[in-house]
Amino acid sequence: MPGTQEMMIILLIAVLLFGANKIPKLARSTGQAMGEFQKGREEVEQELEEIKDGTGSSGSASTDDVATDVDATETTAETTETTDR
To answer: What is the pTM (predicted TM-score) of this model?
Structure first.
């Protein structure tokens, strides 16, 4: 853990590099990015837990649903081609 002198030197370097006006904006954006990262991590952990428990995601389509959708699309396309002739 850096001591008081080391923290003062780091702060001085930050002020020289970014300017005093930009440091609060930089800190705010860093905090927002960390919050978004944590939210994303929690969502992934929740999804993995659901998969592990066998409940799965309620919004995901099963393989049968996808196959039915593909068949309906192909039938619609064939009907359209027939009526265009």
So the answer is: 0.45
